[in-house]
Amino acid sequence: MQDNIYKLKGKIQHYAWGGYTYISKLLGIENTNGEPYAEYWLGAHPSAAAEIILDDGASVSLLQFIQQDPNRVLTPAIQAKFGELPYLLKVLDVREMLSIQVHPTKENAIKGFESEEQAGIPIHAPHRNYKDKNHKPEVMVALSETFWLLHGFKSAAAIESVLANTFELSVLLPLFKKQGYKALYQLVMEMEQKNINNKLNTLIRKELHKKAEGLLTKNDPGWWVAKLYEGKEAIENIDRGIFSIYFFNIVQLKKGEGIFQKAGIPHAYLEGQNVELMANSDNVLRAGLTPKHIDVPELLKHTIFQPVIPEILTGKQIERNVLEFNYPCPVPDFGIHKIEWEGANQYTAYAASPEIIIAVEGGFIISSTNGKNKVIKQGEACFIIPNTEYSISSSGRVLLFKAFVPI
Question: Is the dihedral of CA 30, 36, 37, 41 positive or negative?
Answer without folding.
Answer: negative
